[in-house]
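WARN retry 2 of 3 for item q-0093 after timeout on previous attempt; input resubmitted unchanged.
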Amino acid sequence: MKNLLAVAAFTLIAISTYAQPARDLVDANAAARQHARDLEPALAMMRSETDALSKLTEIQRALSGPALSSIDRAYRLIDDFSSALSKRNVALPHDQQIIVMNAQRMIQEAHTTTPGDYPKFRDDYHHQILLPMQLSVTRDMQQLMSLTNLYAQITNQMRIVETSAMNALNGSAIDTTRQ
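OK item q-0093 returned
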């Protein structure tokens, strides 16, 4: 969340500091394409966050069966996920990296020594891993929704100008005073 907000804020500051206002629609189109490129890392991070939350949720579901087989399945899932993160060099916000590492450590310990109170282990996983990740992704999602709303406002403003221009074009095309 903090990273997504920081990237978006930095992008807006960088655009307003270094870029001149668009003088015409050609400049505006170029600025929009550059802005889309500038936002891509933040959007990629949000996609990575949702993938991580989905995987941690899948692990929680895997832990719903008998202790030994569930922990073994969860261990394989977290191990595969961690390997995939490393191979793809996926960037997660720092707080989410810590959550994933804690999940890996928790499941590794359970895989090594089966917990005596398995329902408590599942409950701990839910409260210490899944809920904090849900909260983190939810905060980032709120930032994404704010960004979406900002773009919706810009789009609406452009549609108003577009409608006005189309009306002017149509009015000039059907000018009855012309012979």
